[in-house]
Amino acid sequence: MNAARLRFRAELRRRWRTWLALGALAGLAGGVVVALAAGARRTASALDRYAVAVNYADAYVVKGFAFGGDALDLDRVARAPQVVTSQQSAELAAVSRSRSGQAIYPAGPDSILYRVPTDGRRANAIDRPQVIAGRLPDPARADEALADANARDSLGDGVGDTVELGLISRHTLDTRPDVHLTADPRTAGYGPLARVRIVGVGATSQPTGGQGAVLLTPAFYRRHGGAALGEFTHFVAVRLRHGQADLPAFRLAVGHIAGRQPYALFEPADALPRVQRSIDVEAAALRLLAAFGAAAALLMIAQALWRQTALSIGDQAIMRALGMTRGQLVTLAGFRALAVALPAAALTAGAAVALSPLLPVGRARDLEPEPGLAVDGAVIAVGTAAVLVAVVAVGLLAGWRWARSGVATAHASARGPGSLRRELARWPPAIAGGVRMAVVGREGPVVVPVRGTIAAAVLAVGVAAVAATFAASLDHLLRTPRLYGQTWDFENGPGAEAPAAVVRRVVRDPAFAAVAIGNDASVEIAGRQVAVRALDDVKGTIASPVVEGRAPRRPGEVALAPKTLDALGVHVGDVVRVRSGARTVPVRVVGRAILPPSGNRDRLGEGAALSFVTLRRIQPGVPRALFEIRIAEGADRAAALARLTTIFDPSAAVRPSEVGDYGGVDATPIIFTGLFAAIALAALTHSLVTSIRRRRRDLAIYKTLGFTRRQVMAMVVAQAITVAALGLLAGVPLGIACGRFAWNLFADWLGVLPEPLTPPVPILLLVPATVLVAALVAALPGRIAARLRPALVLRAE
Length: 797
What we know:
The protein has 25 helices and 23 strands. It is of the alpha+beta class. Strands 1, 2, 3, 4, 5, 6, 7, 8, 9, 10, 11 and 12 form a twelve-stranded mixed beta sheet that branches. Strands 16-17-22-19-21-20 form a six-stranded mixed barrel. A two-stranded antiparallel sheet has the order 13-14. It is elongated, with a radius of gyration of 34 Å.
C-alpha cells in the first residue's frame, strides 16, 4: 500500500491536469444524465404542483344556454355550507377571426372560448392564471386580455397584438336563429364590437384538444353590457372546505338548490388524469434519453480511463521489476480513478443544477409553478454516487486488466498490420504519418492505445445520428395522423340518427374519397369495460392501421388496440365475448390496431374497433350518427371542409394530447444529445492531445528528418481526419440503429404505429461536418506538435 501511495503522489504532481480534464468530462456527462433524470421527475410532478399553486377549483356548477336554462341561482350555490371560496364567470357568445382570416368557433380544434369574471372580483382567487409570457391583464382595463397557449396559436396573435370580438347580445341569441359564428366581427351586427390587446399568455391544465381560452377582465364585462351580453354558459367555480371529501355533500346541496332546474356539475380533477398521461409521455421520453445518455457516457468515460491506464503500461514493467505486486498496481489504478472520480462527482451535481432551467419540457414546462434553477436532492445524490462508483470501478477494472496482461501482450496487440505499412509507404509522408498514428498503437518502445481515440469518435458520431433519427421520427409522427390511427380528414360529433338525405349528400360528393358511418360506444369485453368505435364503410374504405392481423371486415370481428389486447390477455385469432346490458355476442379478434382517442376513449393504445352491424347486435338502439370522411387526393381541401361545416359542426378530429403536447419539445433530443456529442468531441480532443504527448519522440525524429512545421501539423490533421472517418464508418450505422431502436421503444409505449424515419439529408451532412470538426479539433494538438524542439525531446530519451 505504501508503494502504491508513494507512486500515486509522484504521478499526481505530473498528471493532475490530465486527471482533472478527465474528471471534468465525466462530470459534464454525468451532469447531463442526472439533469435528464431530475427533469423527468420534475416533468411528471408539474401538474400536481401547478394545481396547488393556482388554487385549482374543486368543482364547477354550470347553468346557461348550453344546458337548457339559466334560472339556477349561483349565488345560493356559492353560499353552500361546504364552499370556502367561489368565483363566477361566463363564456361569452362572440364571433372572431384569426390573423389569417379563419373564423374562430367556440368548440372543436383551434376553437376559442372567451371567458370573463362576472362577480366583479379584481383578481382570480380560484384557478389563478399562471403567466408564461407577458403579464396579467389589469382588471380595471377593458381593453386587456390574457390568452392561453392554444388561443395564441389559433389566433396567430401574440403578446401586444389586438383581437376584434363581435359580441352577441343576449336578446340576439334568444330571438335570432340566423346567428352565424363565421361572420366577420366588424360587420356582424349581433351586438357591440370590442377590441382587446393580448398582454400575456397563460398556462392551462385542461385537456383542451386544441381548444383555447381568452380571459377578459371585469372592466370588459361592465363596459360592454354586463348581463345583457349573450353567454354560452355561466358558471361558478368553488373551493370546498375539505376538498374532494366534501364533493358528495356539495352535490346534494346543489341538487337541493336547483330542484327541477337544469344544471351541470363538473369536477376538474376528472380531467387531470388525461393531462397527466400526456405529461407522462414527456417524462418517459426524458427517462429514455437519460438511459441512452448514461450508456453513452459510461462508454465514453470508460474508454478514456482505459486509455490512461494503458499509457502507464511501460512504467508498470519498471515498477514490477522494482518489486510492486499486481495487487499494488491495481490499488494504484484505484487511486488514479479516485483522483478522476472526485472532481467528476462534484461537477455532476453542479452541472445537473445548472442545466435544470432547461427542464421540464412540453406541457409541463408551461405548468411548472417554479421555473428556473431546481435542486432535486434525491436524484442528484444518487447520480453523484453512481458517477463516483462507476469511475472508480472502471479504473480498477482497467488496472486489473493491464496488471494481468503485461507489457509484452500489450505491445503485441498494438502492432499494425504489415500490409498497411506497405500501402502507406506509397502515400505522401505527412498523410502517411498521420494515418499511421491514427491506427497503429505502437511506434518503437512506446505504446499508444488508439482504440480509445477511435471509440471517442464513434461515440461522437453515434450520438449525433441518434439525435437526428429520433428527432426525424418524432417530426414524422407529428405530421402523419395515420401513425396515431387517424386515417380520415373530418369527423363530426356524434348525435342523433343521420338523415338519409345527409348521407346521400356526403356520399355523392366527388371530393370525398371515403366515408364511414357508425358511432362510439362503451361495452364489456372479456369482463373489462372497453371504449369501441363501430363504423361501416359506405364509400371507399376507412380503416385504422394494423400492426398484426387485419382490420375487421365482417360482422362478428373486432380489432383491439395494443394495450387493451395485452390487458385482456388475448391474442389475434381468439374469440372473446362482448357484453352490453343483458346482451352478449361472441366476436373473433382479427387484428392489433392503432386507434386514436374518440368520444369514449381518451387514451392512445386502448380501445377496440368493430363494425356498426356488430355494435347494433349488442346495442340495438344506438344511432348511426358518427361520420368519418377522407378527402380525395387532388380535391380542393379547404372547399371540401367548408362544405362539411355547412352540414355538421366543425370537425371533431383532433391530435391526441399525448402526441400534441409533445410536439412542443421536439428539439429536446437534439439539445441533450448535442451536449453528449460536445462531450464526446472534448474526449476526442483529449485523446489527440494525449497521443501527441506520447509520440513526442516520433515527432521529434520526423522533424529531424526534415519535416517542416506545416508538415507536422498536416500529419496531426490527417490523424484526426482518419479517426473521424473510422468514427463515421462505425458510428453512423450504430447511431441509426440505436436511434431507431429507441424510437420503436418510445412508439410502442406511447401506443402509436412504430415507423422510425432515418433522415437522409442530416445523415449525409454529418459526414462533411464530422470531417470539418475533426480538422478543427486537431488545430490545438497540431500547434503543440509543430512547436516540439527535437533536441530537447531526444536528449530526454
